[in-house]
Amino acid sequence: MVSSKDVAKHAGVSQTTVSRVLNTPELVKPKTVEKVMKAIEELNYIPNDIARSLVQKKTGIITLISGPLHNPFFVDTTTAIVNYVNARGYKVNVYFGTEDNLHSIYNAVLETKADAIILSSMLYQDDLFFKLEKLGIPFIMFNRKHQENRHFVEIDNVQAGYLATNHVLSLGHQSLCWIGGPHQMSTFYGRYQGFARALKEQGIDAKSVPTFFTNTNKQDIESAFEELLKLDKRPTAICAATDAIAIEILNLCLERGFQVPRDFNVIGIDNVELSKHHSISLTTVGITAEENLGFLAIEKLFEVMEKKSTCIQQTESVKLFPRNTTCKNELI
User: Fold this and answer.
1) How far apart are CA 314 and CA 211, in angstroms?
2) Which residues contact residue 140 at a Cβ distance below 8 angstroms, ignoring those fewer than 6 apart?
């Protein structure tokens, strides 16, 4: 097997120079870099990442715990995170968490070395938070916040729920419902609080409004929609806690012969790329910034890794994106 010593001899440089070319080429003269890279190619040398990580006390790996890919929010954010990490010269270990596999994922992550962790699976009172702090490894949550109020990048979830609800109320929809997720997650809890606040301002008791809490998978959303259709007074507007829920509701409406927004107004939260598609054109509330939450969070994680920041507490502002799934209630 070819070693770095062989590469050094072939290139006529020291072994230390070969190491510098591989790890910090910007500190080596371009001609020397070219000479060493040519020797690597000619000898078909493959650097030993494990050996290098032991010397540098770094793995060159970032661990990402994302949410399930049936939610397009996690498709968008995972793509942004992986692209950013790779551009910075790191590799990514990606885990897609669901309610059923989170425990095993956490065990695997805690047993595997990485330079940092970025995750969107943290519950509001999750013990994992304290385990990660005890390990001393840089980590950041995106789209989630722990009760300790540290290490997170989120959107203003309360304001998002408020804007979404206030929008359909302003269109004259006094009969509406909420379809959201578990309140153990800060995202869903905050968005529901915004929903309740908007109702209160209109003199509506949130407890009197049909509310469905799901595990956000397709089957649970369909069950919630079936229950909605059984109501004595069907709502004219459906406020969904995520675009993923809203898009599934749109599909269920079409399957059953309903028209949106004639029969139901539908609004989501997140403003994922799929929501902008002209065949969907979902009215939603999303981040004001041009980049998505995954990109903003991974940027902050690298600041922590580079010791430019210590504790990230970032809440991004949101705005309404009115599209084709909401309209004025013609009955008023």
Assistant:
1) 29
2) 116, 117, 118, 119, 151, 152, 153, 297, 298, 300, 301, 304, 312
Task: Please state the pTM of the whole predicted model.
Answer: 0.82
- The answer to whether the beta carbons of residues 108 and 114 sit under 8 Å apart is no
Q: Which fold has domain 4-56?
A: 434 Repressor (Amino-terminal Domain) (1.10.260)
For 57-116, how does the pLDDT look when each residue is reduced to its tens digit (9 = 90+)? 678 999 999 999 999 999 999 999 999 999 999 999 999 988 778 888 998 888 888 999
Kind plus residue range of the DSSP H or E element containing 316: strand 313-316
Domain with CATH 3.40.50.2300 in the chain: 61-155+290-317, 157-287
CA dist., res. 144 & res. 153, Å (int): 7
Tell me the CATH class for 61-155+290-317: alpha beta
Q: Which amino acid is at 161?
A: G
Does domain 157-287 fall into CATH 3.40.50.2300? yes
Distance CA 37, CA 232 (A): 74
Backbone angles phi, psi at 61, to 5 degrees: -125, 135
